[in-house]
Amino acid sequence: MRRLPPLGALRVFEAAARRLSFKAAADELHVTPTAVSHQIKQLEEALDVRLFERGTRQVHLTAAGHQLFPALRDGFDSFERAVDGVRRLKGTRIATLSSTVGFMARRLAPRAGTFRDLHPGWTLRLDATNEVVDLDTEADAAIRYGNGRYADLVVEPLFQDRYAPVCSPALAVAARKDLRAVSLIHFEWGRAGRDETLAPVWRAWLARAGRTDVDAQAGLSFTEEIHAVQATVAGQGVGLLSLALVADELASGLLVQPFELSVESYRYDLVYSPRAASRPATAVLRDWVHREFGGGEKKA
């Protein structure tokens, strides 16, 4: 338990010590000079020390007053900052959107600024995780990658994902036979419970392309898809990558898609709890996500 004098008396002392005037302190605190003098007297009696030397026109701090004043000044400054922070927090509106690490890095983060343009009164909080989050307590909505079946959630389809070989134009890959002369870039699918027939693996693509003379296992392998994207952009080989995740690089010419053949994988959906459907945060996220990613594969 803290052994402190009344907070009101400490506040009066701090104002009087800062201004070295009981009258100026009274004006600041909207009380009378007599009330200030009374509070200071009570504080001095409680501490059993004199805090001020009273003069005709001004007061001066005693040694005890000089010792007490800096701690109270800094404390009240800290109180003021904390209170201002709470007041600002009251007016802050935060919308939390969860998504996979890859989609967050490649698609959401580069477009985050458009959210503020569309909803200037809101703060967008992006939660990157490959884990399934609780959409009642941890986020207002999520962009999920899967078969579109999510029990007890509202599901709004965004676009179907497709995978195709992509590479740097510097590799000069033009025909399927050229794949024998370059490194194939792989990443570990590693998505438990998902249909492996939709896994974007070279073996499946090469089988559909009719190329039995290319080693489907050789090349560079990464545990994370985003690192496979980075290696492909760096010209380290040909990656079988999500066309959604490399859309910007394909549009700019940094990467090319040398073959039309692509394979369908899972789709991206905006999902949220039915109990969150009426939240303003969910509404602004729905508006932004559909504007940015709801136009199909080409837009994404």
UniProtKB/TrEMBL annotation:
The keyword DNA-binding applies. GO terms for biological process: DNA-templated transcription. One of its GO terms (molecular function) is DNA-binding transcription factor activity. Pfam families: HTH_1, LysR_substrate. InterPro entries: LysR-type_TF_proteobact-type, LysR_HTH_N, LysR_subst-bd, WH-like_DNA-bd_sf, WH_DNA-bd_sf. Residues 5-62 form the HTH lysR-type domain. Keywords: DNA-binding, Transcription, Transcription regulation. Belongs to the LysR transcriptional regulatory family. This is LysR family transcriptional regulator. It comes from Acidovorax cavernicola.
